Each structure stands twice: as C-alpha cells, then as structure tokens.
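note to self: dont lose this again. the chain is below, predicted strucutre after it. 588 aa total, dont forget to put it in the shared folder this time
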Amino acid sequence: MSGAGEGGSLLEALERLREELAGLRLPLDLPDAQRGRAGAAAARDQLDDYLLPRLRQVDAPLLAVVGGSTGAGKSTLVNSLLRERVTRAGALRPTTRAPVLAHHPDDAAWFTGDRVLPALARTTGAEEPSGPARADAPAATSLQLVASAGVPAGLALLDAPDVDSVVDANRALAAQLLGAADLWVFVTTAARYADAVPWDLLSGAARRGASVAVVLDRVPAGPGDDAVLREVRADLAGMLRDGGLGAAPLFSVLETAPGADVDGLLPAEAVEPLRRWLAGLAGDARQRALVVRRTLTGALEALPSGLAPVAGAAAAQASAVAALRDDVVTSFALGREELETELTDGTLLRGEVLARWQEFVGTGEFFRSFDAAVGRLRDRLGALVRGRPAPSAEPVGQAVRSGVAALVRARVAGALDRTRDRWLARPAGAQAVAVAGPVLDLPPDFDERVARLVRDWQRGVLDLVRAEGEGRRTRARVLSFGVNALGVALMVVVFASTAFIPTGAEVGVGVGAAAVGQRVLEAVFGDAAVRALADRARADLLRRVDELVDAPRLRLLEVLDSTGVDAGAAGRLERVLADVAAARGDAA
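---
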C-alpha cells in the first residue's frame, strides 16, 4: 500500500461498513446493548479517524500520538522535543483543553481539513491556559493545530489527554486519539509504569498490532540510581515482552535537577535519543511505510473481533423484536380463536339473548316439541298479515348486539392483557410496554365501533333474507313471517354451531332454541338454502370481527416497528465484514 490508488476495493468495502454502522440502531435496553453500542461507536471512530483517511492517503505524514498516565510528563516531553512550548504542562491536572497537534509548517494541509479526527473542529495557535476540570466536564470538541519547525516533515505529534484521567470525557478522548495514531508514543514513569489502566490500553494496542514506542520518563538520575534504572528498564522490558510488545523501542528520559530545565523544557540531551529516532522515522519513506502497514494491518485484523459484539447485539435486538411480535400475533390469534368459538358454539344463546328469543317465540315450553313451536311461531308472525299485533324482533336484536359486543370486548381486552403479560416476561418487554403506553388498552371508541359492527352485520343479515326471498315461491312465506323475524332466527342459528344443528331430543337449551329458528327458516327457504344463508352470515360476522380485532393488533406491531430495530442489520454487517476480508485478501 504505497499509494492512494492501491486497496481501492478495500476502501470501498470499508466505506460500506461505515455506512452500515452509521445507520445501526440498538434501541432496546437488552443486556448486551450497551456493549454493542460502545463497539459500534469505537468502530466508527476507528474508521473515521484512521482506517479510511489512511487508506485514502497512504503517503500522508505519520501521526504519532503521545499518551500515558496522569503526571507522566507528556506535554513537557512534546515541548522539549520541539524546543518550544506548544502545549501546556503544569500541576493543574487534569485540565479541560483541546488536544494539541504539532506539525511541520509544510504539512499543514494534511491536518487543517477533516482528513483525520473529523469530529473535532480545528483551531490554530498555541494552547491557552484553562482551569482544572470536573469529572463531569464535557469532552473537548476541537483540535489545536500548531505549526512548528521543530517537528520533522512527514511526522505530526499529538499530545493526548491522560488515559487514566478522572474526567470520563478525557479518558474516552484519549482512547479515540490513540485509535487514530499510526504510532503510539506511550509515556510512563519509573514509579507508575505498572499501572493497570495504561496497560489495558497497551494490551489493546498489542492485540491490534499497532506500532508502539515506550518512553520511561522521570528516571532518577542521582548517584547510585544506575542500578535502579537498569532494574526498572529490565522489568518494563519484560512486561512489554509478555504483553506482545517486545519489539517496541524503549527510551529513558532522566529526571532533571530543580532549575536544570529552561522555560519548562527538558535539556536537549535528555530527549535526544527519542528525537533522533522520530526524525529518522520521518525521513525514511520505507520505515514510515512499514509503520503504516503494521498499524493498518493490525487495525483491519481487529475489526471482526471488535464488531462481533455489535453483530451479536444487533441480532439480539432483532430476535427480541421478533419475540415481541410473536407475543402480539399469538395473543391475538388465541383471542380470535376463542371469539370464533364463542360466537358459533351456543355461548351467546344464554341469558338475555335466550330470554328475548323465548319471549319472541311465545312460550318457554317450546323445547318439548320443535314442530309445535314452529307452528306457534308461524301463527304468531302470520298475525302481522291478518292485521293483529305480532311480537317484535327488536328485543332479540338488541340482546344480540349486547351479547356480541360483550364477547368481542372481552376477547380483545384479553388479547391486549396477554400481550402485556408476555412482554413483561421478556428482557425488552418493560421498555416495549412503556413505548406502547395506551396502545395496550382498548381504544376510547372501541365500544362504539363494536356496536356499529354488530348493527351493520344485522342489516347485512336482513339483506340476505330479503335477497333469498325474492323468488316468487318464497316471497309469500317470507312476508308471512316477516324479514325481521326470519333475520333474528338466522342470527340465532349462526350463534348455535359451525356444524348444522341436530334436532334430536338430546340437545341443550341454547341449541334447542336455535333448532326452532332453523326449522322456521327451513320451512321458508328449504334445507340447502338455510345452510348457505347461515354460512354466509357467519362468514360475514367473522370478517367484520377480524377487521375490528386487527386494528389494535396492527397498532401494537406498529409500536414495535417504531422502535427502530432493523431485523436485517446483523446479517448486513456480517456480509460487509466478509467483503472487507475478501478485499484484504485481494489486496495482499
């Protein structure tokens, strides 16, 4: 990768990966969601801050990020290397400040734009002092650019915040800046070189194959301290070796006596070995390319493992939403099944509906003889033709409306309650319930809609009866009974059973009531026609009920859609990672 044109397909694959991560949402608070979000953010930063800009411009100057623990002397070291004060060092630590990037004047164009660290705005000039920071202080939002002739051309030095800062934002920014580095210059001290926090970052650098140089700062330089220096260097070198960084150059900077520094700078000879090494690296195109290749390769190799938790979290989100959707579908399917059973198994032919039907037929003893009851019903309804008062079918119709409405309301409310209970038993369920809010309750106008549904269905039943009675041979019989009377009889038949009604002696009260209506209808229309009428009326009722029940079900599914979970995100992420791996293989 010696030029910007190489690795084009790899660059395209990484750009697709960046687009995928930009659109990724993990909105459900699942156990692995936070880890997935952090992994996605880290990968986006790595792509924006290092991989994409480096692949687009392989020959850009090396970016060496100087990082380390609080009080390790990073800023003093940078200033001493450049022989001028470009970044502030002092006792007030930590400080809220923009990280300082020092570059050779001829390299300004590489850094004034958003080629690297695009999220940080650019300011120029030496750093201004600022006060001590709070632990909840906001992260720096700008990058201070300082042109200095002391920086070798082809190299830039970035003074990062402390990796163990008490300010959360500083620690996060330090990690981000180190991820943008071609070279990490890790600064520690003889007293703190074994601290856990910086070693966690060093271990991460080792896993990524990043290029690292280590500076052991503030090494005691008094009489008899040579043995201490040798012991510390040997111990630190062993730790580096054990941590996979055995090839990292190790530099020592002796502690100066009070007053030995000039203008806050260390003596030139104290930092000369490090300065000479950095200058040699900047001036050797081959060595620069090796550093870039090593760090770039390591960063690319770390992508799959770094994004594995992200893909896992995305898959978990999709599975969670799928389970929540299944809860809705299952709950409403069960409610629909119960409702269909209750609307057609005689459940409605009890209580008020049965009482009003008995009154309409004219006797509570008609179950003893269906034929006699049919005859009495024909006589009572025929009185309408002869001008005598006939019983009204409206009380039966009203009872039917109330009964159907109560059943539909109970089953829809039950489906909503089941959905809520199932959701609350799942990890993301409480969040889904909170998002759904009143959608998990019956709509305010639900009772009105159910009543309208039943009225419309009853009108449809009457239309069926009228249409069936249009024939010349049946018109008179229909008129003798009345359309309304035959209509309520058909409704009673519909509510009795999905199978046709037996008329033997061993039948229940509800089915017996329906049998009377069936015999009346058969007397008017014939057996086959009554079967067809009952089937059509039943299908029409269930269709209307389905439309009504479907509305709250669809609203709940829309709530789940509104969470922003993308069911295909994990699969797309895995595919684009496979494309990145294939492009790397082609570019090798």
